[in-house]
From TrEMBL:
It comes from Lachnellula cervina. The keyword Hydrolase applies. Residues 268-285 have a biased composition (Polar residues). It catalyses: ATP + H2O = ADP + phosphate + H(+). The gene is KU80. Residues 6-217 form the VWFA domain. GO terms for biological process: DNA recombination; double-strand break repair via nonhomologous end joining; telomere maintenance. It is found in: Chromosome, Telomere; Nucleus. Keywords: ATP-binding, Chromosome, DNA damage, DNA recombination, DNA repair, DNA-binding, Helicase, Hydrolase, Nucleotide-binding, Nucleus, Telomere. GO terms for cellular component: chromosome, telomeric region; Ku70:Ku80 complex. Its EC number is 3.6.4.12. Residues 262-288 are annotated as: Disordered. SMART domains: Ku78 (SM00559). This is ATP-dependent DNA helicase II subunit 2. Belongs to the ku80 family.
Amino acid sequence: MADKEANIYIVDVGASTAECRNGRMESDLEYGMEYVWEKIGLALQANRKGLGLGVIALRHDETKNDLDSGEGYENIAVLKDLGPIEMSHLKDLQKKIVSSSTDYGDAMSAMILAVHMIDNGTRLKTGKLGKYKRKIVLVTDGRGIMDDNDLKSLAEKVNELEIELVVVGIDFDDLEYGFKEEDKPSNKRSNEKVLQVLVESCKGGTFATMAEVLESLAEPVVKVTRPYCNYRGRLSLGDYNKYPDTAAYIDVERYFKTHQARPPGASSFVNKTSVSNGEASGQDTEMTDAPDLSAVKSVITYEISDPSAPKGKRDVGREELSKAYYYGSTAVPISASEENVTKLETEQSFEIIGFIHNDKYERYLNMGECNITIAQSVNDKAKMALSSLIHALHELDSYAIARIVTKNGKDPQLLVMAPSIENEVEALLDVPLPFAEDVRIYSFPPLDRVITTSGAIMKKHRNLPNDDLVKSMSDYVDSMDLSTFGRDENGEPTEYMTNEETYAPGLHRINQAIRTRAVQPDKPVDDPPEILVKWSHPPPELVKKAAPKLQKLAEAADVKKVADKVRGKRIRDQIKPLSGLDVNSLLNSQKPRAARKITMENSIPDFKQLLEASVSSSEIHDLVSQMAKIIYQMAANTATRGSFDVVTANMRVLRSQMMDLEMPEMYNDFIRAFKQKLVAGELFENEFASSKRELWFCVKSKRLGLIDTEVSEHSDISKEEAAQFYVLSTELPSRTK
């Protein structure tokens, strides 16, 4: 498990911290608290009982500490005792941490108080020091009064308790970082030297300026997880139960090597003030940190059809349900008492079933996360045996194939195990292998040759790249090489994108947003730090350097810009008669455009022909309006005659034509108006409620609703909105009434 921690933050709240300096629009206190709030937010998010945190206010208007009876501890207030932090503590600190009206208060005395609190809080009942990570962080502007008489004894006590001392100064000089404050007051310059001497006297001390510290906060904090053992037992080679003389086994432990880090999930809550009756249910979960919210509880009910029950349905309890599996289209029930027949009876085991040369293994067969297997720590015989196996695999360039069942009753897994000898740790790394059913076999034509229908192989073809194109592509790929684009501390080429600097953007972005909302609800969430979006695009210097190679590649590939699609124009070629005469063009040219009407008797052919001859969006809009009126008239006439097939056929043609013309909004406007008229009773000349239901059922069953983005990329209707559109929100009587 993670180590226990004891962290105390000393915050300078003197009157001088209320000033805005060096061109900042925020006070020195607000500037310094950005670091403290971020650290407190990380502690809150970790939610660890073993993480203790305390806060001391230096140069405070009040004196409130355990050493206040002694001289020199005035104007020092303990705002939070050392211990776990909760949201209530955070809100209390936000109210209390404000600039005071005094400049009195000694930073050395505040650090002595912090050492005293850590000593008392981390010492065991036996008097020995507990196993803690101890840290004191001082955030100050260095403009107060400071007594350096006890400097040596303070450093000795800090080293004795193994405390990490961090001094973060607002506008402190740091030549390595490249910051120097101009016109610095003499007392601040003197205080900086005193604090620097103290830090240098402490083991593992850190002295930094606030600008550098805030810049370092952009780098995400990776959560350190405790090792999790998912298997502890024997790794066998052969069946040692049947063949004890020839089989071998090694006592091993298996741990996660990689495990996907997932972002925190969101829960559903309801605002109590938004509840209509204004009263909270007695079963609501009270949120102590958010009294205005109540947790939402989900309730699932199960119903079955029962003609004898009210409304034809009856509720059933969950205990009455049983599982069923589909066998074709037939449901095959299996009761809870027989459920064991669907499970494979297995016993915990870990056995090597074969070996394979590493050249024969394809990396795409990796099916999951990596685990590491080591010998049991207190078993020297197992260490020797596993070391022999690892070195044998390493020398023979081979992998082991194993079958593992982590617990009794668990499904077996196949693993490929590779030897690992690194940092004096010998282990086997494994990843899951696919079973036969997991592999997908696809056949693709080769990229370097064309095979004709007669079986002939062609090395040169219009669909194959020529030598010039292959060379241009190779040169461009080489010019975009990231493996040596980075620079180390000495300016030597090194890898640009390392695993240690590659963070999950989604995970850390969500954590950043949660911390900001929790700690500072009124503050907008900042843009993601550069280190999270750094890998979203290639480095500009490399792109600029590779531009000439890209230009040569474009010329070799004869890349040309494709003209944008023109909406409202057909994308298919028109069929030309053998005579070369365009009959439709000749006929349409004889008609005045104003006289082009769609007839009721020949609506579909007329609509298609007139659309072919349309040259503007206004003409298309006019034809759609004519078609809509004809569909309305057909629906009104059909209500007395029965079938709505003619109506839906015209609607289908209108829908498909608008999709071909990439103008889905015209059809969507029509179908919305159609539904509105249907619900309002304006569609039929006579009132036929049952006909309303039948007509809408035909529209729904033939999928003639809104055109959504799944069907046309030019639509602005989502899939969910299109599905909701089919719901007819009206009280229409059914035929059974």
